[in-house]
Amino acid sequence: MMQTPLIAALQRIVGEAHVLLGDATAQYVTDWRQRTHGQALCVVRPGSTEEVSQVVKVCAQAGVSIVPQGGNTGLVEGSIPQDTGQQVLLSLRRMQAVRAIDAHNMTITVDAGVVLQSLQKQVDEAGFLFPLSLGAEGSCTIGGNLATNAGGTQVVRYGNTRDLCLGLEVVTADGQVWEGLQGLRKDNTGYDLRNLFIGSEGTLGIITAATMRMYPKPAAQLTAWTAVPTLEAASALLALAHQHLASALTGFEVMNQQALALVDSHYPHLRVPMWQDSPFCVLLEASDSESESHARTLFERLLEEAMEQEMVADAIIAENLKQAHDLWHIRESITLAQAAEGVNVKHDISLPVSRIPAFVEETDEALRALVPGIRLVNFGHLGDGNLHYNTQAPEGGDAAAFVAQFEGAIGDVVYQAVLRHGGSISAEHGIGTLKRDKLPHYKSPVALQLMHRIKAALDPDNLLNPGRVL
Ligand code: FAD
Ligand code: MLT
Ligand code: ZN
């Protein structure tokens, strides 16, 4: 690899060992789903905000664009470089420090490269709860969670990553550092910069640190697994769960039979309950501030009424934490089971909860007509109106050929139905490159124009993650 003046400058900033070249970049340039392979000029691994700032400045001087990356678990191909070999991939993973814990303010300030699971653990050790939870938590970073405004399985109670954040530190496109880590719950001094950077997928600035909220730990958490006959019944169960549990409802996930069949087939040791006899299963979680027995009583009353009203055909309440963990593990294994089955076509959509049953019924029908035998793998955060409406090649079919032939047409069917029902084509994963060309068809022209103006104002030379989102 030729040592360009830029590479030499980057080596001076972060040290030679932290500028990776050639084969050493391999794990950074392919997306999690193994669909796309990019090529980087180099991977640079700064260890501090000051180093990030200097890296951005020398790249800006050289006119070389930067792709920020955290854990590289994103599902929309936004964190890998283009295949030109001309972009610098900036990995935040070395930045792992906990900068401060403020128990009275109930906040924790961390570097952007802290892995989500480690953040959860450190908050737990401090006596609090950090509620963001998702299948990739063992490798995604809090910087990546913020850059994508990740959702996950606790949104119904605690909100998206945006709602958990009270402050950011960001390196701008010209290498300045904006320090906004005060951790204030109220601050109306003009435009909300924090919320502008959250969800911007690395296109407006590089998040180097964040101040996140910590929450009181619940006294008890209970998990139930239920068999439900239809999606209407699942929506009715959600409404009933809100009534019975109020703010104690912390999780409400739906999984269709096909999704659970894939988990059963790839991970039979997980012993998926009830899936063979039920078109849908729903996983519910209650977090109670009083006691386990109080939570159990609430849960039992809810499930009794749901069974009386035939919303639920069968139910189990986990007896202990291990059982609860095992049930959640089944839910979190769907994405992996889908990947093990072969490349597939994903849609991460949101709709008003009340529209979901009709949306699924008509979209299922249209897709079955388009691709006979198509496997419809439907699951997700029903409590937030967010479905992962995914599809897989017919049983025994060629997965790659299925994706190559039908991805576009399937996407059109799904997104047109989303539009008709008043939904969004990206609920939580973001736009990246995967949905970039769809966005103009599904977002208002005024909104798009404003987004282009913001991008031009904050990154006039288009150096931060160009070609992503817009
Ligand atoms: P990356 O993948 O590295 O990057 C994602 C985007 O953010 C890219 O555009 C990148 O350029 C940008 N970026 C990363 N770090 C920074 C930074 N410090 N500053 C600026 N830009 C940055 N997502 C959900 O929302 N909910 C889920 O339930 C969920 N479940 C998942 C389950 C599995 C098994 C997998 C593989 C993924 C799942 N995801 C989910 C998607 C993914 O985990 C999230 O998008 C996560 O927030 C990405 O974090 P990351 O550190 O891996 O970011
Ligand atoms: C999840 O909720 O498990 C992921 O966001 C979904 C996916 O893989 O589509
Ligand atoms: Zn999800």
Characterise this structure:
The protein is an alpha+beta fold and 470 residues long. It folds into four domains: 5-91, 2-Layer Sandwich (Uridine Diphospho-n-acetylenolpyruvylglucosamine Reductase, domain 2), CATH 3.30.43; 98-216, Uridine Diphospho-n-acetylenolpyruvylglucosamine Reductase, domain 3 (2-Layer Sandwich); 220-335, Alpha-Beta Plaits (2-Layer Sandwich), CATH 3.30.70; 342-420, Alpha-Beta Plaits (2-Layer Sandwich), CATH 3.30.70.2740. 36% of the residues lie in helices and 20% in strands. The strands form four sheets. A seven-stranded antiparallel beta sheet has the order 15-12-14-13-17-18-16, with helices on both faces. A five-stranded antiparallel beta sheet has the order 5-6-10-8-9. It has a four-stranded mixed beta sheet with strand order 1-2-4-3. Helix 1 packs antiparallel against helix 2 (49-62) and helix 12 runs antiparallel to helix 13 (399-420). The structure holds flavin-adenine dinucleotide, D-malate and zinc ion. The site of D-malate has 7 residues, from strand 18.
